[in-house]
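Reopening this one. Same input as before:
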Amino acid sequence: MTTACTSGFSAFALEPFGELRPGDDLSYAIADVLTRTRTTLHGGDIVVVASKVVSIAEKRYVDLTRVIPSPDAVDIAARTGEPAEMVQLMLENSTRYFLVTERGPIIAWHTLGFQLVLAGINRAGTDGAWLLPRDPDASAVALRNALIRSTGVEVAVVIADSDGRADRRGTTVISIGAAGITPLRTTEYKGKREEETLTDMIAAAAGIVLGQRGRGVPVAVLRGITYTRSNEGVAALLHQQP
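Same output, byte for byte:
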């Protein structure tokens, strides 16, 4: 299906956003911010959510003091400076990995099919870590359904994760889950057709608002983007299915 390009859009963060605790209802937290800030969602809005808060809501916490590093994890940690316990979690949640340089970073193929730095595992203080959601597309569907019920507005949801790339310094943002929006769009101009990863572009755009560290803002809203509704999910983009 060919989708018209977007000529312009707006993006804003939902803030202030309260601290989320393990097991909290993420849709309720978002609805609470909307109410407190007198913000109204519009039909067609795309709600972009940082994967970390989805992991917190789904209790994906791991106590690093209970993780026993394997000899391989100890070896990789010694070479890269990463904590051996974090490396062990990476090994347990990926199918293969490689070091970009002798000192890292470590790029791993997550069992979900994503290629992520350290398999997308995030530190949680000094003794903990957050794993990715078990099924990010399913998480996006559940969150979208809950938001539609609470607001009465048809929105799309994209779950975003910060990530480094093997060919360059710095961090970008990609999509790992989506609902209510086609993950790919095909554009055509003067007879040339191009297949584009729409949800990745949306996640990256939201990343400009969300920031990477210290902002404490895990949710952004993008408005005015042209897209086709779909529940294919980000899994439809992947070359290697879980």
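So the earlier flakiness isn't reproducible anymore. For the record, The domain at 10-60+134-237 is CATH 3.30.1330.100 (60s Ribosomal Protein L30; Chain: A;).
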